[in-house]
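Ticket #4471: complex job returned nothing on first submit. Input attached below:
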Amino acid sequence: MAKLLIVDDEPNVVSALRRMCLNSMMTPAIPDAQVTTCTSPLQALKHVGDHRVDLVISDYRMPGMDGATFLTRVKELQPDTARMILSAYTDMEGIVRAINDAGIFRFVSKPWSDADLRFSIVQVLQHRELLLENQQLANEVRVQRGIISRQQAELERLEAESPGITRVRWTKDGGVVLED
Amino acid sequence: MIEPPSASGTSKHNDFAWLYALYELGQKVATGIDPRQVQRDILNHIVSGLDAENGSIALLVDGTDDVLEIVAGTDLPPGVLGSRLAPGVGVFGHVLATGQSLLINGGVAETHLPVRINERRDRNTDSAMCWPLRVNDRIIGTLAVNRAAGRPRYTVADLDRGQMVTSLLALVMANHRMHVEREKRISELSQLNAEMQRINALLEDAQDQIIQSEKLASIGQIAAGVAHEINNPVAFVLSNLYTLESYLTGLFKPPEQPAVTPASGSAAALPDVDFLREDGIALLHESRDGLLRVKRIVEDLKDFSRGGADDTLESADLHKVLESALNMVRNEIKYKARIETRYGALPLVECLPLRINQVFLNLLVNAGQAIEANGTITISSGVDGREVWFCFEDNGCGIRKEHLHHIFEPFFTTKPVGQGTGLGLSVSYSIVRKHGGRIDVDSELGQGTRFTVRLPVRQTAAAVESEHAVAMKAA
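Support reply: We reran it on our side without changes. The output follows.
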């Protein structure tokens, strides 16, 4: 299930985007999309505060708060969220902040092409999933490595305490040779 | 035919008919007949009246007091007419210098100075009389008549009688001169007038061009907002059409081949007819609203940028004019400020609506630019006697006191390059003034600014006329 949050001060844009995301008759389809929409960034931040969100698509020019500022706050609240800006107009300064501060995954200009936007959304979601998977695997590896190194550390400690104890020499009849 | 006065004591110089004819000749000067011709006719009249063989008239050259120019003569050698005489030389020079008439017989001056006059143009001349032409104690020229040898010589009595004729002639000449001068002045004045009209027309053109350029410049300033305002509806209408296409494709898909999305493989891919109908209609409604919005903003822009042909007074609903200006700037402003409107009931106002629209747009753009974020722009309106007023109040940065009395000057701006031409308020001011109204400003640094525009409900006849004149000139 992909939880999407769409933020734009224009209700008709929000409505068109919701339609597009939920329309499974078009390809590429967004797998199991669940869409929440907001027409104000402040209202959207409240939602992000207590709901898991996989992808936020935000307008740039909105009353109260611009898209870059909004997505920067989203990033602080849920760092794993994928973030996109969909805008009819922005200045260079806005784009720079969106990329550097808000760490957006895509910048799409309005008017958009439905096919391209869906493709971008699917790609961004896949990319995010890969990232999450990568993170998870890395953690697992780290944990595994951590376990290994704990065993190693114990061995080293034992070896230091009684040298040779980690190097057990067996006799032919199964006895253990102890040096002294 | 008049009877010329005789040379002897039986002179008829004072013959009324002869004088009247002279007077009538003088009058011709005023009727636009070639003045040289008139001078010649007068001289002929005098020459025949004084029973002389020939004669000449010299007038002082303009701007000098001792240079004479021969303006008329009978039987003169070629080249003499129009020639200038050196100061003090000859009979004319002598008469001009002394201011007294001269009788010359046989080459000797008989009056006042028994000097011998050597210089004779015509050896045949035996007797001559020469008078200064005097107007108000000022000598304007000289007149001379000559009689050939073998004829009775002129006498002092002839000289005195001739004096009377010369004063009339002097008056005629002076009149002529003044007439010519007046004509010259009139033509100079009318030239000056024509020049002023031309310059006026140029100024009007220049002002129209400034108003027009200012208009285009303000479009540049609201372009970002307008692009946003157009792009948003275009974006969702386009997206809705893609969606509608897929809805229709889904609806008309043969039922034996149900669409299955491989990704989900669920029944969600099958068209839910009820949903599609409902959402399809909603989609069309929203799209139509979007296109109407694009249409409106394009119309507002087109109206606004239209130039030249808007110089006709109309009775306009100024709230509509204001709304049209607001439509253009709302998108620029709404990210920074809330717009509050408190409209009073207004009568129709006689004005040039597109010009007033330009004024409103300017004031709104300024108010928007004064606000950094989270501001409020309050627009109120009302009637005050025979005037309507509009008040644009912002809680933005305000105007510095030292700038306050410069803000209506052309090219005065404190805005960064690209945000202002310095023409907005100057053009607004001149538009409002042309309507017989005024703009007042009230500002406090850091607190905000209030502009009040007052316009008369009816244009006065004079204002209408001047506007009409402008329109005529523009046509």
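The mean pLDDT of chain A is 87. Closing as resolved unless it happens again.
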